[in-house]
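INFO  loader      accepted 1 record
INFO  loader      residues=185
INFO  predictor   begin
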Amino acid sequence: EADCTAAKLGSGIPVAAIGEPVSAVTLGVPQWRAEANGVPAYCSVEGSMAPVDKSPAASPIRFGVALPASWALRAAHMGGGGNNGTIPRLNGGIMRGGPPLVQQGFATYGSDSGHQAGGTNEWALNDEAVANLAYLQLKKTHDAAMVVIERAYGEKPRFNYFFGNSQGGREALTVAQRYPADYDG
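INFO  predictor   done
INFO  writer      dumping tokens
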């Protein structure tokens, strides 16, 4: 809990640490989540990656990272659903009947894919936003999460996985094709 602070995790990430173009990466104030309802204690960090395109239709990528108090040197990128637009639930289970990944010591992370649900669909008229949904947000989110994880634990995960179904299943195939060196399974 003492390490779940902006002093430890920072308030931003250098754009050079992100393998695809962004204009800025900011981190919100980390939030400590005490153990509750079978979910172990973890630190929650949310952030935002600003688009390179400054047109009104361009939107940021909002992402989150869940850092368990007891880390197993593993991370899991959580894919989205439907047309995305929201950050996936990072503290829950992924397999029916199985324990939550955070409970298994996985640092988990995911994004809203670069547009926010509930608004207009103007984002779909922006080339960068469409490319983010297609694949760019996956690399950007991965790279930002790896920086946060390394700041939190002093090292990157030994194993990194991608979990998803629906849109997340398509995203899993996309990272396997475009960014295979970033994942172990």
